[in-house]
Amino acid sequence: MRVCVIGTGYVGLVTGVCLSHIGHDVICVDNNEEKVKLMQAGQSPIYEPGLSELMKSSSEAGKLQFTSDLAKGVEHGEILFIAVGTPPLPTGESDTRYVEAVARGIGAHLNGGYKVIVNKSTVPIGSGDWVRMIVLDGIAERQKALVTAGGGISTLEENIGGNFDVVSNPEFLREGSAVYDTFNPDRIVLGGNSDRAIAMMQELYQPLVDRSFAEDKSLPPVPVVVTDLSSAEMIKYAANSFLATKISFINEVANICDRVGADVTQVAKGIGLDSRIGSKFLQAGLGWGGSCFPKDVSALIHTADDYGYDAELLKAAVTVNQRQRLVTLEKLQHELKILKGKTVGLLGLTFKPDTDDMRDAPALNLIEQLNRLGAKVKAYDPIVSQSGLSHGLSGVIIESNAEMLADGCDALVLVTDWQEFLKLDFTKMAKVMIQPLIIDGRNFLDRQAVQDAGFRYVGIGR
Ligand code: UDX
């Protein structure tokens, strides 16, 4: 099928590349010309395992193109994905101005054939109908311009208005495993009120439903959940809010464990084996960050508020998460007492491993508070240190490896659970520290091994 993906951020680029890999003809559109040039040259603007390789093979096979020309993309696609950002406004609402601009642009360039316009961006509930209206506006503006230019309206122009449908198709991929998640989905959600549009979306995703590109091809087909527009939009918010609340829940349990002397890792195992609870997303630590959970939970709280409902549970999940970010700071103060003049080394900076994303990363709050208390902060992160980019970070010295980080530190804090931290030479690191103390902010390290290497080990809730 002919696909156009508008917006080559995380979701858009991964979607475009993966759809081209399963056999579709994809054009990705972005208004950032420099980014388009980079992608045309075969380079991925984001770090995501496996993505560059697929980008290269699809481009070589002629299945994937990049352009800044929206008209070209709209003309090409039978299915048009809107995948631009909906960043949070200071109020917690989503900023939908990019979605609006794209929808208007689509309207301005729609040609004769039937098209499905897919909302892939995480948009406020009710946006499906709103997008339809904006597209119609875009068409009307074009028609007006044609009349003003003296061209009159052709039959083609008159017909466009009824020749598209809007579908909501939320995205559940995780950063760092986005390609894997796309080929191995738990479910595909399609919201809309047009049978024709839903049928086209089902055809588009058939290779994924059949698991033709999945790791385990023997599993039954991927469930496709077909709903109305608003329910599909709500599924995205509810899924992310549930997962964020689940993490806040286990973090609260961890804080109680700390006080009563229980071990949250054992508790998580014990409760996670109950199939009604499930073992995933029960890892206590520094709390959730990134581009999705904070934004989506706030947006759902805001929507509830707009409709006169006080979403107390979700608000509590946010409060617990804010407090959790500074749990390692409390532990540092407990161990070192005065932090002024002490040197603290952070292992990891990104909000989670296998990504270069620093958006809403717990490390940022920790750095700010350590600086405020007069501590010197150093950090080593496998991606941030390598990329040579400081990611706009201030108040922190970036070291190029873990041993240099440990040198002269009074304490280390493991902030991100990068796999490579499991293989560090802790014996060597302990020797170059002022005091070999480590706060494991993700309960990630082998406690015994680290202690054997000479460290005093402090975890979260254990
Ligand atoms: C999330 C959702 O998982 C995904 O479905 C959605 O499409 C986008 O948002 P992502 O933000 O990439 O994906 O990261 P995820 O792996 O879900 O982790 C989110 C945060 O929760 C991270 O900060 C992570 O460190 C934290 N986390 C996760 C925990 O603290 N404990 C856990 O048990 C799991």
TrEMBL record:
Record-linked InterPro entries: 6-PGluconate_DH-like_C_sf (IPR008927), NAD(P)-bd_dom_sf (IPR036291), UDP-Glc/GDP-Man (IPR017476), UDP-Glc/GDP-Man_DH_C (IPR014027), UDP-Glc/GDP-Man_DH_C_sf (IPR036220), UDP-Glc/GDP-Man_DH_dimer (IPR014026), UDP-Glc/GDP-Man_DH_N (IPR001732), UDPglc_DH_bac (IPR028357)
Protein residues bound to NAD(+): 30, 35, 86, 122, 175, 295, 359
Chain segments annotated as coiled-coil in the UniProt record: none
GO biological process assignments: polysaccharide biosynthetic process; UDP-glucuronate biosynthetic process
Pathway note: Nucleotide-sugar biosynthesis; UDP-alpha-D-glucuronate biosynthesis; UDP-alpha-D-glucuronate from UDP-alpha-D-glucose: step 1/1
Every UDP-glucose/GDP-mannose dehydrogenase C-terminal domain range: 345-447
Catalytic site: 292
Domain of life: Bacteria
Catalysis: reaction(s): UDP-alpha-D-glucose + 2 NAD(+) + H2O = UDP-alpha-D-glucuronate + 2 NADH + 3 H(+)
Positions with a binding annotation for substrate: 172-175, 236, 281-285, 289, 352
Enzyme Commission numbers on file: 1.1.1.22
Entry keyword set: NAD, Oxidoreductase
Gene Ontology molecular functions: NAD binding; UDP-glucose 6-dehydrogenase activity
NCBIfam families attached to this UniProt entry: NDP-sugDHase
Family: Belongs to the UDP-glucose/GDP-mannose dehydrogenase family.
Protein name (database record): UDP-glucose 6-dehydrogenase
